[in-house]
Write a structure and sequence with these properties.
The structure holds three protein chains of three kinds. By secondary structure, chain A is an alpha/beta fold. Chain A folds into two domains: about 5-105 and about 270-340, FAD/NAD(P)-binding domain, CATH 3.50.50; about 115-265, FAD/NAD(P)-binding domain, CATH 3.50.50. Chain A is built from seven helices and 20 strands. Chain A has a five-stranded parallel β-sheet, sandwiched between helices. In chain A, strands 11-18-12-13-14 form a five-stranded parallel β-sheet. Chain A is elongated. Chain C folds into two domains: about 5-100, Orthogonal Bundle (Fumarate Reductase Iron-sulfur Protein, Chain B, domain 2); about 105-225, no CATH class. The chains are: A alpha/beta, B alpha/beta, C mainly alpha.
């Protein structure tokens, strides 16, 4: 009899873990709350640093589940009961499902940019988020201002909702910097006549080929980088936007008029993650993301035997790390179940 | 611009404002420059709203201007504030409302400080007891007088005789609202609507029929700057800040500016005069400047009070064009008369800014 | 740790105001003083967090700390929860306590503020008083104020004030027993001592500068500090 594992969350982490678990011989049920699997990556046009299509990764991960993983969408988890046999997951409008082990892969949400009030998101027409920009790329739409004009100047704002005590998120969301550099290049590519200025505090080019992407953005694409966090965004009569920052490297306050602003919104712990975590008694860190059993050596397990974590439930993560993490989680689950069966 | 975006934020910043039995403390700047406003506030509270607003003659300045120009130490300012609370307590009140915004900010800052550092509160209690023999309770509710007028804006509208409509065009008047820095910058939660899109004056304007204008420098300080105004050598800072605002709002052609801090209308009014003298610039229409009103004055106008009772005659930028737009009558020959109808001369007219006086 | 830094850290506003600065610049971006003067509040916080006594002493003797208008726009924006505006108040406080303020042109102005607003609080119970706001020291108040000044009693009466009279009301005469309480508060909490220091350090400085200083406002030193703009406060260094 195959050991049954339930993976809660059908994004990149959940799908990868499910596929890897199936390869390792488990019987896997993947539960997803939305109408489709794919999480956030299905909405992402091209991935850093190489700007390869996100679709390619999605297809691979999808195929890796094959027909061995039972996938259920539109699922709402109401509660989880733990017993000596394992876990019974109570579903809305369905019979409960049981498993020997759970993988929590419910991911993250994007920071709600409305909360950063002084940036005017939801108030000024030409302020959009990085996710909305990515959607424009994905749908092959033209990048225009709200009233249909081609923008001559676009500002990209880093650290929106991250590293910010005022909105309650002290942490860095890790991937927004390289996303910003990528999107700056993509805007310049799409609109060669458009000036792009990125306002950053630090440029977190932490992984392979990131620093080279930053270099390319400057040298090949002429993206401007100003070290200063956006302090305020206001609107002119013609709906262009007035930005107030300081160029901290030269020590001068700066006022700049642009046609559009792109906010690089960070990660926040998802509401679903918090909900599910509570059901199984998982702890969160001060940052609101879930705690693993040990950040260095047991980062895929938790303090609750049989419950494992994969992906951005633990904090901001890129796709490369998430896929590696999810595969590691599968291995940890296998090891756990083997030791259980040996008893 | 999506106004709904602002409405969502406004609902996150609601605040408890007492409904009656206010202990009222006055504003140094307001009493000096637009005293008619404080008179009008009390008239509205008593005659229109039938509220109990009590003033104890023993109260003094909170010392806010002295504190923010750094001659009065924080320890002293806290004890002065403690004394004000003591007078409130002995008068039998617990709802504290201030005429001045700097005061409101100072009282808020001090209450927060005592909350986070109880040993400081204890020390101040000792100072007050030793210096004056007084003890005090902290207020149950702290509000600014503009919060109170905001709270009763519908009742004022109901009793109102005028709306903020241009009688010639039938359209709502276009109004710039300006919030005092010390209202909600330090503690956004203590201001109605928060710090970025404050609602306290917007709510009044909406209720009374006007249209609110947003403009890029809306949030910019008027430039009082305390020591930046008090000392002549520093006044460039003050006038430059105000000019920045006027240059930014001018393209939107506002009919007037509404303020809630006592200092701001004085600066927005007087710096228009100074700019007209120094550079020949006037904002507004035909050299009239943009009239600047206090919220008390605006409420008084809505209720149909005599403009010279409200105190509009002591504005340097003429308010008459605005009164004409609304259709409010005023008696120019009586503008500069004493209480018992005698002449006391008239101010000279400025060189470039229009002025209304009896010929 | 530096002695000056420790002294600053005795003030609760310092504890509230200085967490840790990452030099993001949102404070300077929004600061009215940074638009006008050669000034960046970020720089102030940056210097303070070095805890270096020499730099902090230089700061307290400089023009820099006197440029702030205490509007607190910086507090609204800082993502680390710092408050440059509050730190400025502490620096100004200690600068006056230690006599550093007289080393800068803007710092020397404190005597003018003490002898006007500072003394009016004790004399009248108000920070400002109509008969003291002289049109010649405030030409920007306009002809309207000149006229008010000439006719103050009547104007105040017309506007519903209780000017100089007893009982509640606008610009009432605050009873002497209440002014006495204020004086005792000033004595007890260090304001009287602060006033004394402002006077004393200014007296010494006026002597060094060779400018005549007498009581009141009608003397060369007061006129000098009230109007002097001999340094280039708005030029980039």
């Amino acid at each position: 009899m195959n050991d049954k594992v339930i993976v809660i969350g059908g994004g990149v982490a959940g799908m990868t873990a499910a596929g890897a678990l199936a390869d390792l011989g488990m019987e896997v049920l993947l539960l997803e709350k939305d109408t489709r699997t794919g999480g956030h990556v299905k909405n992402w046009d091209r991935l850093f640093p190489s700007r390869r299509p996100g679709r390619e990764v999605m297809d691979f991960v999808g195929k890796s589940m094959g027909s061995d993983v039972e996938q259920r969408c539109n699922v709402i988890v109401n509660s989880i009961i733990r017993s000596d046999d394992g876990f019974s997951v109570q579903l809305e409008n369905s019979e409960p499902v049981t498993a020997k082990s759970l993988v929590i892969a419910t991911g993250y949400e994007l920071f709600d940019a409305h909360k950063k009030e002084e940036y005017g998101y939801g108030i000024y027409d030409n302020v959009i988020t990085s996710a909305e920009l990515e959607n424009i790329f994905m749908e092959g739409k033209k990048l225009t201002t709200h009233d249909g004009k081609t923008p001559a100047r676009i500002a990209i704002i880093h650290c929106v909702g991250s590293r910010d005590e005022k909105v309650g998120n002290l942490y860095c969301s890790k991937v927004c910097c390289v996303t910003g550099v990528k999107q700056a290049i993509e805007i310049r590519e799409m609109l060669p006549g458009c000036e792009v200025t990125s306002f950053y505090m630090d440029l977190r080019m932490y992984d392979r080929n990131f620093e080279e992407l930053y270099y390319e953005a400057q040298q090949k694409w002429g993206v401007n980088f100003i070290r200063g966090r956006l302090s305020e965004c206001a609107e002119n009569p013609d709906h262009s936007l007035v930005l107030k920052t300081e160029d901290t490297l030269t020590g001068r306050p700066l006022k700049l008029t642009v046609d559009m602003v792109v906010l690089l919104v960070g990660f926040v712990p998802g509401a679903e993650t918090r909900r599910i975590a509570q059901m199984v008694g998982l702890q969160s860190g001060a940052d609101g993301f879930l705690l693993s059993a040990d950040e260095h050596i047991l980062d895929n397990s938790t303090t609750v035997p049989g419950v494992f974590l994969a992906g951005a439930v633990k904090g901001p993560a890129c796709i490369v790390n998430t896929i590696a993490d999810a595969r590691a989680t599968a291995l940890q689950v296998k090891t756990f179940l083997s030791s259980q069966n040996a008893v | 611009m999506k106004i709904d975006g602002k409405r969502n934020i406004w609902k996150d910043y609601q605040k408890e404002i007492a409904a009656d039995r206010y202990f009222y403390v006055r504003s140094c700047v307001r009493q000096n420059f637009f005293p008619g406003s404080e008179k009008t506030f009390l008239r509205i509270m008593k005659d229109e709203l039938h509220k109990d607003v009590f003033e104890n003659a023993a109260h003094t300045t909170c010392s806010g201007i002295g504190y923010h120009s750094d001659v009065v130490p924080f320890e002293t300012a806290m004890t002065m504030v403690a004394r004000q609370f003591s007078i409130m307590t002995e008068s039998g009140y617990e709802n504290f409302t201030t005429s001045c915004i700097t005061s409101f900010g100072l009282y808020s800052e001090i209450l927060e400080t005592w909350h986070h550092f109880p040993e400081v509160e204890e020390r101040i209690r000792q100072h007050l007891l030793k210096a004056t023999g007084r003890t005090f309770n902290k207020p149950a509710n702290l509000s600014h007088a503009s919060d109170v007028i905001f709270k009763f804006r519908k009742e004022i509208a109901a009793n109102g005789k005028y709306k903020l409509i241009n009688k010639n065009t039938g359209k709502p008047l276009r109004i710039v609202e300006h919030i005092g820095c010390h209202y909600s910058r330090m503690f956004p939660g203590k201001g109605i609507g928060g710090a970025e899109y404050p609602y306290v004056l917007v709510g009044m304007i909406e209720e009374w029929g006007g249209e609110v204008i947003d403009y890029p420098e809306r949030r910019h300080c008027c430039g009082f700057g305390f020591r930046q105004y008090l000392v002549q050598a520093n006044r460039g800072y003050s006038i430059a800040s105000t000019k920045k605002k006027f240059d930014s709002m001018a393209p939107y052609k506002p009919d007037f500016i509404l303020t809630n801090c006592p200092g701001c209308p004085m600066f927005l009014d007087r710096w228009q005069y100074a700019l007209s003298e120094m550079e020949g610039i006037t904002y507004g229409e035909n050299g009239h400047g943009i009239p600047v009103l206090t919220y008390e004055e605006l409420a008084g106008i809505i209720l149909g009070y005599d403009p010279w009772d409200i105190g509009l005659q002591v504005h340097q930028v003429p308010v008459e064009p605005l009164l004409d737009k609304i259709g409010i009558p005023y008696d120019t020959p009586r503008k500069f008369l004493t209480m018992d109808g005698k002449m006391m001369g008239q101010p000279n007219a400025p060189s470039n800014l229009k002025f209304y006086q009896h010929e | 740790m530096g002695k000056l830094y420790d002294k600053l850290a005795e003030d609760v506003r310092f504890i509230e105001g200085l967490k840790a600065c990452l030099n993001c610049g949102t404070c300077t971006a929004i600061c009215p003083a940074a638009e006008f003067y050669n000034y960046q509040p970020r720089q102030i916080v940056d210097i303070l967090q070095t805890r270096n006594d020499e730099e902090i002493e230089a700061l307290m003797k400089s023009e820099t700390i006197w440029y702030c208008g205490e509007c607190m726009s910086c507090v609204t924006r800082c993502p680390r929860g710092n408050a440059p505006g509050l730190l400025i108040t502490v620096l100004r406080s200690v600068s006056q306590e230690l006599g550093f303020f007289v080393e800068s042109e803007k710092g020397r102005q404190q005597l003018a503020i003490k002898r006007t607003v500072g003394e009016w609080i004790l004399k009248y119970g108000y920070c400002l008083y109509p008969s003291e706001i002289l049109p010649q020291m405030h030409p920007e108040q306009g002809p309207i104020w000149e006229w008010e000044h000439e006719n103050m009693d009547e104007v105040m009466h017309r506007l519903g004030a209780n000017y100089k009279k007893t009982g509640p009301g606008i610009l009432r005469k605050i009873p002497q027993e209440d002014l006495d309480e204020v004086q005792r508060i000033f004595d007890e909490t260090g304001a009287t001592e602060r006033y004394r220091k402002i006077e004393e350090f200014s007296r010494i400085k006026a002597g060094e500068m060779g400018i005549n200083l007498e009581p009141g406002l009608d003397n060369d030193y007061i006129r000098h500090i009230y109007t002097a703009n001999e340094k280039d406060h708005t030029k980039d260094a």
